From TrEMBL:
It is a multi-pass membrane protein. GO terms for molecular function: G protein-coupled receptor activity; olfactory receptor activity. The lineage of its organism: Eukaryota, Metazoa, Chordata, Craniata, Vertebrata. This is Olfactory receptor. Residues 41-292 form the G-protein coupled receptors family 1 profile domain. It is found in: Cell membrane; Membrane. Pfam families: 7tm_4. The chain crosses the membrane at residues 59-82, 94-120, 140-163, 211-229, 241-264, 270-291. InterPro entries: GPCR_Rhodpsn, GPCR_Rhodpsn_7TM, Olfact_rcpt, OR51/52/56-like. Keywords: Cell membrane, G-protein coupled receptor, Membrane, Olfaction, Receptor, Sensory transduction, Signal, Transducer, Transmembrane, Transmembrane helix. Putative odorant or sperm cell receptor. GO terms for biological process: cellular response to lipid. Belongs to the G-protein coupled receptor 1 family. PANTHER family: OLFACTORY RECEPTOR 51I2 (PTHR26450:SF112), OLFACTORY RECEPTOR 56B1-RELATED (PTHR26450).
Length: 312
């Protein structure tokens, strides 16, 4: 059996950073550090929230969901990224590539939904604090988590089948060290209109709507905070949102940058696209545990207690 059958290649070839192949092995060290921070940091936060009764509150339940999503995203990209950069092992089976694509896009949509849920948590806490405990019950939080997870898997579920129906015969070389839907569909020698339309629908109906609602929630939060007479109380209220705002920026700014370069940066060097895509996938899982550990004293205290118990 040759490299290609009737419909698709037996495997794809992954790419590190175009034009920097000779020096990309030097990036293996920093990548390993980033993965260690992402995997270790998010695992520690999950363990701290689970073990510390004082963190059994809505805000920290949502933080646990965010850490789980970041952990899953890191695990989804880790095998191919490290194989490509450390071992220069570039091949990935067609079916394995479809599975990785599904996982990456699913957990990306899931993270966006969790950030929206966290903005709702901040809205209720600041704009309607007396009803906070009655609005965000354990049942409501579980329902929101289930809704976010279901939405991400249901909306991304058709993508592997939309790729599988395409005859991919232009090439079998992908532009990244992991599998993405836009990257795979460009290799097809057939009409990809359905893939483009559905991909745009997924982005607008999930990530686009989430960002819009997050923006609206912060407009309402700011309006409520500005009505507080005391400057100290205003700063205290806003300070509870800082970690979430930083997490939102860490997730959406690289994503918007990738989209802008992809749409309008036709003359931008190829490695710029790849670097921005890598920042979009790798930075949020690394930054989120650092942000919440640095900005939330309850998390710091719980982590300290957890390590103290381990030491004892």
């Amino acid at each position: 059996m040759g490299l290609f059958n009737i419909t698709h290649p037996a495997f794809f070839l992954l790419t590190g950073i175009p034009g920097l192949e000779s020096s990309q092995f030097c990036l293996a060290g920093p990548l390993c550090v980033m993965y260690a921070v992402a995997l270790g940091g998010n695992t520690v936060i999950l363990q701290a929230v689970t073990a510390e009764p004082s963190l059994h509150q809505p805000m920290y339940y949502f933080l646990s969901m965010l850490s789980f999503s970041d952990l899953a995203m890191s695990l989804a990209t880790l095998p191919t990224v490290l194989r490509t950069f450390c071992l220069n092992a570039r091949t990935i089976d067609f079916d394995a590539c479809l599975i990785q694509m599904f996982l990456i896009h699913s957990f990306s949509v899931m993270e966006s939904g969790i950030l929206l849920a966290m903005s709702f948590d901040r809205y209720v806490a600041i704009c309607d604090p007396l009803r906070y405990a009655t609005v965000l019950t354990n049942e409501v939080i579980a329902g929101m988590g289930l809704a976010v997870t279901s939405r991400s898997f249901i909306t991304i579920f058709p993508l592997p089948f939309l790729i599988q129906r395409l005859p991919i015969c232009r090439s079998n070389v992908l532009s990244h060290s992991y599998c993405l839907h836009p990257d795979m569909m460009k290799l097809a020698c057939a009409d990809i209109t359905i893939n483009i339309v559905y991909g745009l629908f997924v982005v607008v109906s999930t990530i686009g709507m989430d960002l819009l609602f997050i923006f609206v929630s912060y407009v309402l939060i700011l309006r409520s905070v500005m009505a507080i007479a005391s400057r100290e109380e205003r700063l205290k209220a806003l300070n509870t949102c800082v970690s979430h705002i930083l997490a939102v920026l860490a997730f959406y700014v690289p994503m918007i940058g990738v989209s802008m370069v992809h749409r309008f940066g036709k003359n931008v060097p190829g490695f710029t696209h790849v670097l921005l895509s890598n920042i979009y996938l790798f930075v949020p899982p690394v930054l989120n545990p650092l942000i919440y550990s640095a900005k939330t004293k309850e998390i710091r205290r719980a982590i300290t207690h957890m390590f103290h118990r381990i030491k004892m």
